[in-house]
């Protein structure tokens, strides 16, 4: 209840949330309205799952006020706070239960840290269709479908005409863009001076392993250096033709032309398997480091079976558990500390 004396005195009650907009309390409606804004002001709002209910409600209220006043909303970022989209595409429902209506001046929506299946992906596009100024939809550090992302026929024609860009950043340096023609992901951005490092763990989901393999293939085909591929208890064997590594999940890893370091952990290797691994390494022309850790390896390797190309390449094979380096000429393990000291002395 606002005292009548306060209304008669025309007192301005202002609230500056330090985002370029200043709000004034309307005595007539008991609601906040925009009082002042910078000429070039636009609104950027982040909603985190950890935000209090009140903070989320304020953020949503700001979005509504800005959209109704025609203020440009340059960014709305949802950090692990997306739950779903209403079936009619008219609102986003947060994990807190709060809802975000269609925002007519929203330009970019960022969804961070969410697991999104094909059905949810289509729902999100339905919401985007209702926001006429939105031209960017970004997913970051989220789990999205890899294959058959969406039937191109299910993509609203308004989004194609609007030139909407749907980007996916998995945090490994590669950014993907959804092709509206094929409904599949394509490389949008490749770092020119950045290398890719990928770990494949036995405990990863089938989808996550498929995404890692896809990234490795795309990087190698594009000439991007793969500085490290780590197989943590996920290595099973090497194909007889040496053209692929077979993982415990059944997935296959092809020869990677730009791979530099292969790290195999948590796998016991006999002599036959060791030679098969060297045969695969021979097919990867830039691979100069092969590391084993938490693994049991043969005490001696038949030097006659070690490919001569690896000797010419000066491949370094390290057994990290005992810090020993394989002598490719004799097939015996040598003290790694002593060998490292020799290199530094040269």
Structure description:
The protein is an alpha/beta fold and 346 residues long. It is 25% helix and 32% strand. It contains eight helices and 23 strands. The strands form five sheets. It has a seven-stranded mixed sheet, covered by helices on one side. It has a seven-stranded mixed sheet with strand order 14-15-19-20-21-22-23. A three-stranded antiparallel sheet has the order 1-2-3, with no helix packed on it. A hairpin with a 4-residue loop joins strand 12 and strand 13. The model has no long low-confidence stretch (mean pLDDT 88).
Portion in beta strands: 25-35%
Q: Strand order, biggest sheet? A: 4-5-9-10-11-12-13
Secondary structure: number of strands = 23
Terminal residue distance: 84 Å
Task: List low-pLDDT spans.
Answer: none
Give the assembly state of these chains. single chain
Tell the overall outline. elongated
Share in helix: 10-25%
Nearest-integer average pLDDT = 88
Query: Number of helix segments?
Result: 8
Question: Given the helix and strand composition, which structural class is it?
Answer: alpha/beta
Q: How does the major sheet shape up?
A: 7 strands, mixed
Output the radius of gyration. Answer: 28 Å
